[in-house]
């Protein structure tokens, strides 16, 4: 047992609410927007999902770290969350395939966390008051000092983060001899999306966030374009909106996931908005209204498209609707080979109900 876990830590929310607990991970201080994920498994995939960049993650599952850390179960090159809040922080783990403990993993990657928190009470508070900035510290316990540090943290509304998590260099994924070539605009892409393309005979080339349509077209001449998931406020990304508009103008097959969905909406003059506390978990019910079919989905987003604007648009039609809150979960552009969903069909972690969307994209490129 690591001695760090016995040290006190404090979590302070922007509205002044305070939770006390024990230090987890590196001793230090971290800030970010606090949000919660209701998934019962897949904590490592959540930690490494670039869409969570800049966010303090509250795990609603009572045990985190209990099956250790495996070097293979990552969605990107490093941990992306700004910090972790959990109930039971399990340093001892029970899986032979694991490479290290969660404590070693967090220390190597300088991640600050807090455990022994009443996460049920915390989640009920966030659900009621909405997502807000927060600070975790295991080195500063003075609340006035923490309030001053928290006041300096940027607000997620209007924050552009994708260029910070995107690849700096282009790279390829899959076989060069594959039937289809897909250009991936990396705004925070998850590895399992690329694996799903590889499984479907796709050779993908992944481009930095600010690459133009003309550059991708000239360099790769792809069969289709994929606009990835990612963190931050989509309306703060004029460069990506412009790229999506150019892809649509050239009438190329286009598929967007999560942030890619929001950008496809913005490219069709449909605004986005920050949600009260977003959707994050593995069990969100979504209805495909085209085929009258329901699917259980994996989700992670704090922004969404404005439903009234989608319904009023003459450019797009609704394909998927969230059965919990009626938010828009999927659209397709009329008279174009372009569609998108707000949730994660690559579902890592999560159910595999929505993998057919990758096949739909392949069919558009045929």
List keywords for this structure.
seven-stranded mixed beta barrel, ten-stranded mixed β-sheet, 2 domains, alpha/beta, Rossmann fold, single chain, amino-acid biosynthesis, 31% strand, Glucose Oxidase, domain 1, carbamoyl-phosphate synthase (glutamine-hydrolyzing) activity, globular, 366 residues, 25% helix
Task: Describe this entry's structure for a reader.
With 366 residues, the chain is an alpha/beta fold. The protein folds into two domains: 3-151, Carbamoyl-phosphate synthase small subunit, N-terminal domain (Glucose Oxidase, domain 1, 3-Layer(bba) Sandwich); 162-365, 3-Layer(aba) Sandwich (Rossmann fold), CATH 3.40.50. Helices cover 25% and strands 31% of the residues. It is built from eleven helices and 19 strands. The chain has helices at residues 43-47, 102-108, 119-129, 143-151, 162-165, 191-199, 213-220, 238-249, 259-267, 307-312, 356-365; strands at residues 8-13, 18-25, 29-37, 55-59, 63-64, 83-85, 88-89, 112-115, 132-137, 171-173, 180-185, 202-207, 224-227, 254-257, 272-288, 293-305, 316-322, 328-333, 338-341. A ten-stranded mixed β-sheet has the order 10-12-11-13-14-19-18-17-15-16, sandwiched between helices. Strands 1-2-8-6-4-3-9 form a seven-stranded mixed β-barrel. The chain has a two-stranded parallel ribbon with strand order 5-7. A hairpin with a 5-residue loop joins strand 17 and strand 18. Helix 8 (238-249) crosses helix 9 (259-267). The longest helix has 12 residues, at 238-249. The chain is globular. 51% of the residues are buried. This is Carbamoyl phosphate synthase small chain.
């Amino acid at each position: 047992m690591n001695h760090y876990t016995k040290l006190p830590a404090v979590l302070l929310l922007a509205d002044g609410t305070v939770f006390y607990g024990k230090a987890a991970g590196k001793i230090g201080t971290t800030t970010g927007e606090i949000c919660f994920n209701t998934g019962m498994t897949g904590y490592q995939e959540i930690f490494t999902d670039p869409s969570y960049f800049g966010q303090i993650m509250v795990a609603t599952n009572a045990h985190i770290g209990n099956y250790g850390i495996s070097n293979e179960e990552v969605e990107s090159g490093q941990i992306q969350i700004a910090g972790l809040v959990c109930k039971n922080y399990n340093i001892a783990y029970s899986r032979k395939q694991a490479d290290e403990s969660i404590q070693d993993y967090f220390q190597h990657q300088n991640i600050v966390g807090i455990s022994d928190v009443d996460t049920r009470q915390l989640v009920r508070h966030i659900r009621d008051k909405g997502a807000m900035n927060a600070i975790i510290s295991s080195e500063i316990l003075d609340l006035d000092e923490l309030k001053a540090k928290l006041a300096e943290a940027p607000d997620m509304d209007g924050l552009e983060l994708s260029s910070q998590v995107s690849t700096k260099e282009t790279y390829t994924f899959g076989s060069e001899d594959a039937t289809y070539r897909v250009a991936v605009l990396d705004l925070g892409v998850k590895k399992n999306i690329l694996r799903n393309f590889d499984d479907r005979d796709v050779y993908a080339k992944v481009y930095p966030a600010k690459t133009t349509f003309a550059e991708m077209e000239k360099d790769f001449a792809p069969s289709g374009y994929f606009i990835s998931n990612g963190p931050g406020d989509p309306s703060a990304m004029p460069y990506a909106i412009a790229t999506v508009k150019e892809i649509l103008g050239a009438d190329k097959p286009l598929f967007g996931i999560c942030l890619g969905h929001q950008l496809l909406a913005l490219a069709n003059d449909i605004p986005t908005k920050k949600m009260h506390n977003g959707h994050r978990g593995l069990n969100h019910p979504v209805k495909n209204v085209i085929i009258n079919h329901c699917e259980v989905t994996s989700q992670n987003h704090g922004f969404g498209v404005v439903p009234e604007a989608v319904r009023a648009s003459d450019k797009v039609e609704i394909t998927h609707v969230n059965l919990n809150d009626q938010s828009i979960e999927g659209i397709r552009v009329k008279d174009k080979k372009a569609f998108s969903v707000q949730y994660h069909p690559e579902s890592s972690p999560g159910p595999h109900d929505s993998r057919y969307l990758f096949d739909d994209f392949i069919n558009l490129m045929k």
